[in-house]
Amino acid sequence: MGKHRRASKAIRIATIAGVAGAAVAAPILTATSASAASVAAWDRVAQCESSGNWSNHDTGGNGHYGGLQFSPSSWAAAGGLKYASRADYATKDQQIAVAEVLLKMQGPGAWQCAYAGPLTSGGPAPAINPDGNSASTQTVKETPAKQAPAQAPAPKKAPKHAAPAAPAAPVQQGTGSYTVKSGDTLSDIAADLGVAGGWQKLFELNDEVVKDANLIFPGQDLKLG
């Protein structure tokens, strides 16, 4: 089940109780309410479990998420679904709040890195605010960010060492002061020679020779002004 024992334990608890999620945590909480750990202790456990990455997206491929490496079943069994669908989508304070419930349910043995805290069965309650903002809260967005509006692309730059495409018809010649070389683009020529108006002006000046701003050929003579 991955690097923790907590996933299988949480599943057994859910099976015995006949219910899932936060409903499992309520009766067990009352029975062993003395278990707790400080924020500093949870930070040390997270450093050992996930290098302190509270938004860890299962980068190790072991099916565990968040700073304290919850399996989906443990997250659900300890009531995490009221905050987010997975631990890595919840804030740091919310992950610690769910970890406190799991600590009461299963004890320190639910984490391989319990020794780093160290996690105990009677530690101090952590100073967290899972339902609002606090100094230790880290917000992780579950929905992807909106993409910026697409902008019109500049003329494509041909690879420097790519062989030029053979023209379908004989290359037309203009009367100008620059001869196109292999690997050139209108953007490069306009920038290198300081053409006022950039590649657009260069394209306009040579529209009888250059039919496509993305396609120029070695040997073409271009007007520069």
TrEMBL record:
Location of the region described as Disordered in the Swiss-Prot/TrEMBL record: 124-176
Q: Bias category Low complexity: which stretches?
A: 145-173
Q: Does the keyword Signal apply?
A: yes
Superkingdom is Bacteria
Q: Name one Pfam family in it.
A: Transglycosylas
The leader peptide range reads 1-36
Q: Which UniProt keywords apply?
A: Hydrolase, Signal
InterPro entries named among the record's database cross-references: Bact_Kbp (IPR052196), LysM (IPR018392), LysM_dom_sf (IPR036779), Lysozyme-like_dom_sf (IPR023346), RPF (IPR010618)
Task: Cite the record's Polar residues compositional bias ranges.
Answer: 131-141
Q: Indicate the segments forming the LysM domain, all copies.
A: 176-224
Q: Which family does it belong to?
A: Belongs to the transglycosylase family. Rpf subfamily.
Instruction: Please identify the protein, giving its name as recorded.
Output: Transglycosylase family protein
Origin organism is Streptantibioticus ferralitis
